[in-house]
Every structure is written in structure tokens, then in C-alpha cells.
Amino acid sequence: MVIDWTGLRAAAADAARRAYAPYSRLLVGAAGLTADGRVVTGCNVENASFGLTLCAECGLVSALHATASPEPSGAPRPSLVAVAVVAGDGDALLPCGRCRQLLLEAGGAALLVDTARGPVPLGELLPAAFDNADLSARREAG
Ligand SMILES: [Zn+2]
User: Is the sign of the CA dihedral 114, 40, 111, 57 positive or negative?
Assistant: First the structure.
């Protein structure tokens, strides 16, 4: 799959312009390319309680699922293959730790994440990650 990084960065910058960030004034947009060729976006949404603030990647992952075609139970979930996260000025931002974990479940360790030095696999940004295999391997029977 050819990844249009320029288009993905532009979609992220467009989402950043819609961010609700009255407290930090750090506008953040994220855009992701899905395995079925869609582009989904998110922006950060702050809250006066601060602890409830949502990162742009949270909105992106929600949009990934909310905009996917309904699939029968047991079908593969929609997934991401590439993600760009930018600040309001268009410069690349790295996802925070929480969002790296969210993105892992939405795209796996091979998910390409844009950085200031170019795209890198998410596995490099979140080594030795906890994932759903850890749950199934350690879940008690019954
Ligand atoms: Zn985050």
C-alpha cells in the first residue's frame, strides 16, 4: 500500500485547526490511514478538569471504529497502517505514552508513525509493550 504522507500530514493539520485546547493552547491533530484505505482523523479536546482531556489520537481511534462498515461478529476489526500527528503549526508530534498504547491495539507494532525524522514502526516507540496477547495468556480459566 502506498502511503500518502503529505496528504496524511495535511489531514492531521486540518484536524488540528478544529482542536478544542483553550487551556494549553497546544492544538493537535492526528490522521490515520486504515487498512481498507480510509483516512480517519481526530483532534485534542481539553476539559477544565484536565484529567478528562482527550488526545487527538483518542478521537482518531474512536473515528476508526465509528466510521467502519458494520462487520459480522468475529470479523477482523478495522485497523490503521499509518498515522501522522501534528501540532497547530504543522510540525510532527509524537504520541504520548497512553496514545502509543491505544495505537498499538489499533494498528499493531508495524503501524507506521510519522516523526520529525520520518515514519517509524510503532514497535520502536513502544518496545516490550503490553497487549491483548498478555491478557489471553494470563487470564484465569473459567
Ligand atoms: Zn495522548
Answer: positive
